Amino acid sequence: MPARKTAGGFAAAPAAAVPALDGAPVVTPGYWDEACRHLVRRDRVMKKLIPQFGEARLRSHGDAFTTLARSIIGQQISVKAAQAVWDKLLLALEVSVAAEEAALLQPGAVLTRDVPALRAAGLSARKAEYLTDLARHFEQGQVHVGQWQQMDDEAIIEELVAIRGIGRWTAEMFLIFHLMRPNVLPLDDLGLIKGISTQYFSGEPVSRAEARELGEGWAPYRSVATWYLWRSLDPLPVDY
User: Where is the signal peptide, in residue numbers (predicted)?
Assistant: First the structure.
């Protein structure tokens, strides 16, 4: 698939590496501080919300396969439940905590286990099948990992949704948490919709059209506004 560029498709500034608690590097977006200033100036809710979380920010472990695997595991369950399943899977695959922090989960490790073994590690049958299919795509070179940084958001989504178990939501989580694209608005995300309802509409139901219209005011940093709305609902940072 050829690389394509569109306005707003790339991060506004380079990412920065920072140490994790165990010394393994994680990456944070170089545009984050500017995004926060932008949102605080333009949005009354963000002006109150952003300062509540201090220096906390989006971070990436820098590994594409791990990010997509965690996104699949996190589908339709809470952050806490997803972390519990992830920890159990790492134990079953004999991946150390330090390696996980450095995002070293490899497709080959998943392919050493069959679906029943992955289910025993806490995955549903469907998620075990999805994770196996994802691992095969990576092992067989069916995804263009080396081209993703140059491709626009929609081109990457198109490639990823061809993999079983990856819909638009999962592809958008990948854009936010791995490629750290600044302007993603995941309208299929229940947490985003709930956050908008709670913070902007006093708990009243919110339509996709209303959420999209509100999100236009966050551009070109819709990913950042989304992250803070997630944090407003759950004290655990969203992390893939």
Answer: none
